[in-house]
Model the fold of this input.
Amino acid sequence: GHYASIIRQRISDEPPPPLYSLSRGTHIRVFVTFPIVEKQHLQGVLYLSRTPNNIIKHLFEVQNKILTASGGLLILVIMLVLLVSATISRPIRELIRQTERVKQGEQKLIKPLKNPVTYEIAQLSESFASMSQALTERTDYIQRFATHVSHEFKTPLTSMQGALELLQDHSDMPSDRRQRFIDNLLADTQRLKQLVNRLLELARADVLEPSQQDSHLPEAIFTLQNRYAERGLSVCYQKLPNTPLAIAPDALDIILNNLFENSLQHGAKQLTLSVIQHENTLELHLHDNGTGVSPANRTKIFTPFFTTRRNNGGTGLGLEITVSLLKTYGGKIELAESTQGALFVLTLPLATSGIKIKH
Done:
């Protein structure tokens, strides 16, 4: 005889009772036999059988432990909900309140959250505050621009209205005087036309989608040199690098043309160009021998509609258009110190620089 154990399916001759049995709810039974041997003779067999506890009875026996674990889990869930509410829900509700402020036009009051808790919400808050600041600056710019536009249009329109009223009321005025009023009307009309054209150029420059075309400085300078030589402006320069610039040819032509025109309007007869090439940019210096910029006007020169040559057809929008185009392509313009004339410094991105341009 040898020790043996076996599990067999528990089959009953009677159907299961309506009330589930805790002690005999399983469908298996375990049998164990152990031989009793004495002097190499089998004297008997120890036979044991047992129906194991089912899962329900086992749970019933450890119900206190289960209730304790369930209570602890419930407390943990409640704490987790409170933590999520404090770390995510509260900052998000504050961001929602800030969006309502922006909707009501209070974007100047938007600041990054003091306690964003998480890194992602901190980034979101800072981005939202930056966007609000950009909207504020854009709104202020539009308001200032609208004020300047209304002023620039009001002056010639008022002059035209006065001249027309005089012509209407004094139909018998001398012909020479009448012609003088007509000439004034034509001059004011021409000025309005120039203003409208410049405003259209500025609008296109402000919303311009940057082109992927490259341009070359020598070609642009050569074209402008011939154009302005006929108008009395001499352009002097040494050898210019032919490194491709990350600016569309038409945009580069407008930028340089505005600066050439600005020099000519301020009495310059000569414009000297010099170049400093860096790793990612090209620095172009434009130095003329004109009247220059007075210390009082240095801070105003890039202000829209500011001009000291209004009577000579200046609109004060040329440099503003230049700034907008350069900003579109990742460049910039500065007015440098100069003992004679005006010195402008352009920073132009190279096509191989990888500088990101504005979209």
